[in-house]
Amino acid sequence: MNTISYDSDIAAWANQQAWLIRHKKFDLLDIEHLAEEIEDVSKSEQRELASRMAVLIAHLLKWQFQSERRGKSWALTIRNQRKAIERHLKQVPSLKPNLKDTEWLDIIWGDAVYQATKETGLEDFPEDCCWAIEDILAQAWLPSDDFLNGGC
Question: Under a CB-based contact definition with an 8 Å cutoff, are residues 139 and 127 in contact?
Fold first, then answer.
């Protein structure tokens, strides 16, 4: 069998590796690259969750800090991101511990603040997340205007 190089055509390589596995030709497998690709699946799932969380939080920040610009578009984005996160966590439950990881949440918060700053021009967002993760993910919850009175 003519083996396909990982570096020459990753799609053809992946198809060939799948064929080799299905036909139990284990001695012909490219084990090192297969291991890397499997690890990349996990990283991809983590990136998707992080991206959706950052978009959600950025829109919650905009909702709170630009109340005069609230509209259907922001509300839809918030709702859709929450639903997508919920589905993603059902499909990949091993990602749930990330939601309790303060270091991970700090990174997500920073990404969200960056997005919100870029989209609004505002620079006075809180340095640290002041919402509970349960609130952020709750379908009915939206931040209030209490930041005007010293709250988040």
Answer: no
pLDDT single digits (tens) 27-55: 999 999 999 999 999 999 999 999 999 99
CA 43 to chain centre: 10
What does the chain come to in residues? 152
CB count within 10 Å of CB 50 equals 17
Check residue 150 and give its pLDDT.
45
Neighbouring residues of 54: CB distance < 8 A, sequence distance ≥ 6: 108, 111, 112, 115
The 3-class SS string of 9-35 reads: CHHHHHHHHHHHHHCCCHHHCCHHHHH
- Checking phi first, is residue 121 left (phi over 0); if not, alpha (psi -120 to 50) or beta? left
Separation of alpha carbons 107 and 65, rounded Å = 20
Q: How far apart are CA 116 and CA 68, in angstroms?
A: 15
DSSP code of residue 4? P
The structure's pTM equals: 0.84
Q: What is the DSSP letter of 127?
A: S
Residues 84, 86, 87, 89: is their CA dihedral positive or negative? positive
